[in-house]
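A further point concerns the way the authors explain their paired sequence and structure data. An entry of this sort, consisting of the sequence and the corresponding backbone structure tokens, reads as follows:
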Amino acid sequence: MTLTFSRLLADAWSLFRRQADLILRIALPLVVLPGFAVQLLCDPLPPLPPAPRDQPMLEAWMTQVGTWGQTNAIWYLLADAVGVFGLATIAVLLLDPDRPVVAGAMRTAGARLVPFILASLLIAVPVGVGMWLFVLPGLWVQGRLSAAIPLLARAPRQRVIAAIRTSWRATRGQGFALAGAVVSVFLLQWLAIVPLLSADEWLRAPGNDNPLVLSLVDGAIAFLGGAYHLAVLMIGMATYIRLARRGS
């Protein structure tokens, strides 16, 4: 059966809806909350200087970014690691044939955390390059590699590189369907998050500080970011399940 983006989205939604209570119990504290914490408590990345930019301006900006990284980057990396742990726990919970409870899924994900983090990093590199080039190539690559995390969750002895290669090979010919599904959730997130990012920037400007409103805005930004990562995971799991059923 040929995959379509609408069928993938329907499968992903059905998968989420059947276990929504358990998924949210994991995703809110482990995927959303770490993002909210760094969004609220860490300094934002220094913005690019306004155009026209000359060499001294860019050098000064790079110095600011270096200073920012020394004090903030470790917390962002830690939040990302916790988020990967949360997503891995959800994947194990939904795909393990032994149907573990949440605590069991967390133990399994924790024992395999290094491979999950390594896979996430290896996927993030081509996705990031593609997003930087023209956005759509990055989303297309993300769709093609979306089954790698489910593969690691379902097969404990699966190697990271092998899982990524298998995802790429098994989704050959399904790139447009996968890209369509990922682009759909990306656009929904983007349309919702752009005004919140503008509000966050305005609230951090001198004279506009309002801690309560800023915390609400940052909480919404973290929620949307977590929802996007969860949606991509659901698409990947729906893809993996369909491909496994037809023996790919």
Summary: The CA atoms of residues 199 and 217 lie 7 Å apart. The mean pLDDT is 88.
